[in-house]
Amino acid sequence: MYFILELLANGWSIEEILENYPQLKKEDIYEAIRYASMILKEEEYIEISS
């Protein structure tokens, strides 16, 4: 999943990912995004003053 997220973060479109990795489906990409969202939702952020 991290690989899909890296591609998206580096500016690849969903269409480019699907063209270059035909074994993937659009649902796989959306699932990677949902997973990342879930992980970040559970993160606790602490602001550190300088």
TrEMBL record:
Pfam families the UniProt entry points to: DUF433
Listed SUPFAM superfamilies: Homeodomain-like (SSF46689)
Coiled coil residues, start to end: none
InterPro entries for this protein: DUF433, Homeodomain-like_sf, WH-like_DNA-bd_sf
Signal peptide start and end residues: none
Name of the protein: Antitoxin
Organism per entry: Thermococcus barophilus (strain DSM 11836 / MP)
